[in-house]
Amino acid sequence: MRGITTIDNQPGSDTITLWVTSAKDTQARHVNAVEVDAAKDLEDAMDAVSSLTRCCGVLVTNGTTLDGLPVAGKPLTESDLTDLVAYTEAHQHAISEAVRDHKRRTRSASVAMPVFPVSPIPADFAPVDDTPTSRAFATANYLALAWTAWLKTDEERRRRTTRPKTGETPWIMPESMNSPLIATFPESFAARVHEQALV
What we know:
By secondary structure, this protein is an alpha+beta fold. 36% of the residues lie in helices and 16% in strands.
């Protein structure tokens, strides 16, 4: 998956704004943004939507309609991002509990507790004004911070799967949390992401 494209396409508006967010390592960043005028050139507008959504999941701003756009499947919404934050916080709790359990079992005072990013709050991502660009940018920013919080959280888990000096695994994390890879998203959220076809 290339990333997630945020779309603003309000009923009665000819302006479609798309904001592409991608993740590398433990950071989600915006990599492209386009505003197209469907009234001026509908074919070019549809080509832009196809180009910026292929191999991506789709997230819509509040009030957006995808009617007539070349997008398949149910898109993500702001409420899905709120769920992503909740899944991340639950994951943080599970990681912290695993570390505490390890410290109790081994009586090790040297094992450091994980430090997690602060969870984003939806109210902090209100659009500056009622324009397609502002709505898309605000929603894409919420996505970027929620996604980054997940990635940084899962990195804290991954760092505790293998003992650095010996390569012993599992180490601090239990077997059920012992994957050596950082998950792009929690499973429950990933199931909601409908990646658009390449063509």
